[in-house]
Structures are given as structure tokens and as C-alpha cells.
Specification:
The protein is of the alpha/beta class. Helices cover 49% and strands 15% of the residues. Strands 2-5-8-1-9 form a five-stranded parallel beta sheet. It has a two-stranded antiparallel ribbon with strand order 3-4. A two-stranded antiparallel sheet has the order 6-7.
């Protein structure tokens, strides 16, 4: 009787897990469909942005101006029910402008006291526009907040609202008067998503949808307080040891000092992906596994997330910069060389 009860409980747990995964997959697709009412095309971009949100990571969006990066953040906040904020970075922007500052004010007793006036970072979904135009001092203050999820000033700690996400944008073309993010600060972003230029059909559709005076009305598909619970559930997605080992081998293969590194890595790469890159790879693969309907992370899930998690963590050397080597091409060669467990078994 005891063994039967144990089998019944195990079966019930598996059925419940399958139902939860199916419900999440439907939710994910509903969110993306609702966003596509306002955003034309960009299917992969929307998918990766939602993957980062459900993984609990920050995103760096790279693309030329006018591609809708700012609009993406506003759309995300509407369909997920997050309070949006925005910081427009300029060279004269100071840390207090984004974090907040103490001001003198009167309390209920008429006495003058110091109050902390919160800055724009105290939002659920923060857009940092053109982050590479802010000075290193302001960048450092912002990226510290991204890691700590709190602002410490005047000996007081002020926690940020939960959940908290940063979507930062940068223009890859215009480098004059900018302050490129250092490697250690780039590593704080979970994903680096490239925003491509729309194709002909998308441009025509954009002209139809966005040249009037009315904007599409978007529905709130879920509330922000449900997001944290979903993140915890998705973090329980099992990762088999062979898959974890494969992901770790991918990260090691991006380091030029490794004996089995591909020739392009040895020739063009100065530093490879960090352990935080491996963490981002596994966290993102867990969510993608749930989206595709899997019950356990596979090597294909890891491959799907390899570029967005590692492209900003692989630093080219002087020769790589001079030859204008594309990091995505280097990652493709790493993926081609590092064999999956199934490919190893076929040898």
C-alpha cells in the first residue's frame, strides 16, 4: 500500500508539473502575441527579451536609433504589469540624477529634516537609453544597483521594487563622445540582444500601423507579482549532468589559453566568457526548455542561448579588432567544434 501511494504521489506530481509547463507555454505565447499587436516583426527579439525577464536577468539592446528599442520597454511593461521608468543618458548625468538624493523638507511636526527623494531607478522595468553616453562614474552607480537591487546613500539602504529589470540600449555606430562599458560591467547583463533593421515587409507594415494618431490598446496578460513565483518555478527545471558539462565546455572553449581552443579563438580572442556567462546560459536554457515544452534541459536549449549570453563576454584582441572579426562568427565555430554528448557517442 505504501509503495502504491508513493507511485501515485509521484505520478500526480509529474502530471501537475506537465500542466504547469503547458500553462506557462501558453502564457509566454500570449505575452508575445499581445506585444506583436504593437511591435512589427522582431519575433526572435521579443522571444529573447521575454526569456531574460523570466530568467530574472538584465538586457543590453544594441541597434541603431529608430528601431523601437524604447517602445519595446513600454510594451513589455504594459503586458506584464510592471511600472516602467526611463533614464536618458548624457555626459553630464550624475549618479544622484538616477539614484536619488537627500533633500531638506519639513516633517509633520514642522521640523526641517532630510528626506530621501527617490530617483528613476525605483521602478520595476527601467530603460537606460544610450548607456554608453553616461560617464563611467554614472555607469558604475547604475550597474552596482543592477547587482545589489538597492541604493545605499547617507548610511541608509533603500531596496528597489521587486521584480527589477534593466533594459539598456546602445548605438554601435556612433562612438564619438561615448564611454564604452568596461568588460566587467558588460558581464552584469544576462543577454546582449542585437536589434536588426526591419526587412521590406516589416517596414511596409510599420508604415501602416504607426503613421496614424491612435496606438494599439494592449491588455495586461499577467501581473508583476506573479512573475517572481514563475521565476522560482522555472529555476527548478532539471539540468542533466551531461548538459551542464557541455555548457561548461562551451564556455571553456572561448578561452584562448585552453589547449583545445579553436584556431580563431586563439588568434582573435583576448578573454573568453566568464562563469557568470555559464550561469546565464543555464538559466536562459531552463526557460527556453519550458517554452518549447520540454521537461529537462537539453544541449539544443543551451545552443539556442549561446550567442545572446556570450557575445558580450568574449573580448577580441587587437588583431581581432583590426580584422573586424564578428564575435558571433567565433561563437559559431566554437559550437561547431565542441561536440554534444550525443555526437561524442557516435564517434
Amino acid at each position: 500500500m505504501g509503495a502504491y501511494a508513493l507511485r501515485f504521489r509521484t505520478l500526480s506530481r509529474l502530471m501537475s508539473s506537465a500542466a504547469d509547463l503547458s500553462a506557462f507555454r501558453d502564457l509566454f505565447n500570449s505575452l508575445k502575441s499581445e506585444m506583436q499587436k504593437a511591435i512589427v516583426g522582431y519575433d526572435e527579439l521579443l522571444t529573447e527579451a521575454l526569456l531574460a525577464i523570466f530568467s530574472g536577468g538584465h538586457v543590453l539592446l544594441e541597434g541603431v536609433p529608430g528601431l523601437g528599442k524604447t517602445y519595446l520597454v513600454r510594451t513589455l511593461s504594459q503586458v506584464i504589469g510592471l511600472e516602467p521608468g526611463r533614464v536618458q543618458c548624457t555626459p553630464d548625468l550624475m549618479p544622484a540624477d538616477i539614484l536619488g538624493t537627500h533633500i531638506v523638507n519639513e516633517n509633520e511636526h514642522g521640523r526641517r529634516v532630510l528626506f530621501f527623494e527617490k530617483g528613476p531607478v525605483f521602478k520595476n522595468l527601467l530603460l537606460v537609453d544610450e548607456i554608453n553616453r553616461a560617464t563611467p562614474k554614472t555607469q558604475a552607480a547604475l550597474l552596482e544597483v543592477m547587482q545589489e537591487h538597492a541604493v545605499t546613500t547617507g548610511g541608509e539602504r533603500h531596496p528597489l521594487p521587486s521584480p527589477f529589470f534593466v533594459l539598456a540600449t546602445q548605438n554601435p555606430m556612433e562612438m564619438e563622445g561615448t564611454y564604452p562599458l568596461p568588460e566587467a560591467q558588460l558581464d552584469r547583463f544576462m543577454f546582449k540582444i542585437k536589434v536588426p533593421f526591419p526587412d521590406l515587409a516589416s517596414l511596409v507594415e510599420i508604415s501602416r500601423r504607426t503613421t496614424g494618431f491612435t496606438e494599439p490598446k494592449l491588455n495586461m496578460i499577467m501581473k508583476g507579482d506573479k512573475l517572481s513565483a514563475l521565476q522560482k518555478e522555472l529555476a527548478e527545471m532539471p539540468v542533466p549532468d551531461p548538459v551542464a558539462i557541455y555548457a561548461a565546455r562551451l564556455v571553456l572553449a572561448t578561452h584562448p589559453e585552453q589547449p583545445d581552443a579553436v584556431p580563431d579563438v586563439k588568434r582573435y580572442v583576448s578573454y573568453g566568457s566568464s562563469p557568470r556567462g555559464l550561469q546565464s546560459l543555464i538559466r536562459g536554457a531552463r526557460v527556453w526548455c519550458a517554452v518549447r515544452g520540454g521537461t529537462s534541459v537539453s544541449c539544443d536549449d543551451v545552443i539556442r542561448l549561446a550567442k545572446v549570453t556570450m557575445r558580450h563576454r568574449i573580448i577580441l584582441n587587437f588583431e581581432g579588432e583590426a580584422q573586424q572579426v564578428k564575435v558571433d562568427d567565433v561563437i559559431d565555430k566554437v559550437l561547431a567544434q565542441v561536440k554534444t554528448p550525443a555526437q561524442e557517442a557516435m564517434k
